[in-house]
Amino acid sequence: MDLNTIKENLTFPIEAPQYRVEVDGFMSFANNTLTHDGRLRCPCVKCVNNKLLNPDDVNYHLLQYGIMRNYSTWVFHGESVDQVPTSTSTEPTVEKETLTHMDMRQLVHDAFGHSESISLSKVT
Ligand SMILES: [Zn+2]
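That is the input. Now the predicted structure with zinc ion docked in place:
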């Protein structure tokens, strides 16, 4: 599950199925940030990352109160803050990669006409 998809689903109201399912996504993501005694910062609207709770309680709070709406970068739950793109970073976005693949497919199609069996895996 992609982190952005998880966050997107967590912007739904807490009674929405998307939200309730994705609380699990958050829990499994945050599972890497348990303290040595197995607790987790609770990002619910009441605790606002100020309390360390058992994962079960965090799960309960997220379902009961909802996650902080402005907690967009999960710095307390394992998300690196170093991933902000810099001016030297030329890493393409997912959208650009998808577009490139589509262009390649079209190119192959144009070049070989009806040869649909050409392996796109050769086109990298
Ligand atoms: Zn809480």
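The chain is about 40% helix and 5% strand.
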